[in-house]
Amino acid sequence: MNEGTALSMLGTPGAVALMVSAILFTIGVIGVLLRRNAIIMFMCIELMLNAVNISLVAFSRVHGMEGQILVFFVMAVAAAEAAVGLAIIIAIFRHYEVVDLDRFNLLRW
Amino acid sequence: MYDFLLFFFAGGAVLGAVLMVTRKNPVSAVIFLIAVFFFTSGVFLLLDAHYLAAINVILYAGAIMVLFLFVIMLLNLGHADWRDLRGPFGGLLTGSIGVAFLGLLVRNIVASTDAIAATPAGDALREATLEQGIVGVVARPLFGEYVVVLEVTGVLLLVSIVGTILLARRGDA
């Protein structure tokens, strides 16, 4: 897959995928820091998990199937985490009627 | 063609992510995140991870994001909120942290470009896929070498189901 000239500045498709992974992860970090809405912060965490999945898949082309197996488990854990996290958000919303994380300091010192 | 598709899916994913972070309405943020997952699946396809591309669309875009959408509509949050984005000071701080972080990551990737280019480009994986099938190439190690991890993941999902029900039910129930 090394035939492309447009890829010459970045090398291989793997390098492009790693670059995309880095950019998506950074956008996720920015989103978590920039937003106050708990649900959107949670979505940014999903975006970061997805960015890591891209780099794992990129490395699995070179280093064997273990990367893709790990992506499989990351997806399973992300599904479990999404269910529990959204349940916590629903429970918080029942008490305070907002999902603005600046309003909560229950676990903050 | 391969290069064009790779840059198309990669650029689409990045564009969708930027739009998702900057949307004030949570529903449009969810829609753009679904778009990001579709573009990511395209990248997975081009990197010879066909099974994961399908699972990414079915599990992430299909199941998890629908859960998010349901919660947003259940809590009636589907309207733009001016307090959601932090102010100019917070934006500046966040932007500088993001630029520093991205610079660090890109520097490390560029520094190892030669090592990435020197490695063989996944021919072994492609041959294994032709031999065992798209699902088989994932299923064999999953149900062989990693079967204990798979079972533990099942227990984790069961615990998360029970925890979700406990957390989300009403207190007087």
Count the DSSP helices of chain B. Answer: 8
| CATH level-4 homologous superfamily of the largest domain in chain B | NADH-ubiquinone/plastoquinone oxidoreductase chain 6, subunit NuoJ
Q: How many E strands of chain A?
A: 0
- Beta-strand content bin of chain A: under 5%
Task: Average the pLDDT over all residues of chain A and give the rounded result.
Answer: 82
What is the second-level CATH architecture of the largest domain in chain B?
Up-down Bundle
Detailed description of the structure:
Chain A is 72% helix and 0% strand. Chain A is an all-alpha fold and 109 residues long. Chain A has a single domain (3-103), classed as Helix Hairpins (Orthogonal Bundle). Chain A starts with 12 loop residues before the first helix and ends in a 13-residue tail after the last helix. The longest helix of chain B has 25 residues, at 50-74. The termini of chain B are far apart. Chain B contains eight helices and no strands. Chain B is 79% helix and 0% strand. Chain B has 173 residues and is mostly helical. The model of chain B has no long low-confidence stretch (mean pLDDT 85). The chains are: A mainly alpha (109), B mainly alpha (173). Chains A and B meet through α1, α2 and α3 of A and α1, α2, α3, α4 and α5 of B.
Layout of helices and strands:
The complex is a heterodimer of chains A (109) and B (173).
Chain A: H1 13-34, H2 38-63, H3 66-96
Helix pairs in contact in A: 1-2, 2-3
Chain B: H1 2-22, H2 26-46, H3 50-74, H4 88-111, H5 113-118, H6 123-132, H7 136-143, H8 147-168
Helix pairs in contact in B: 1-2, 2-3
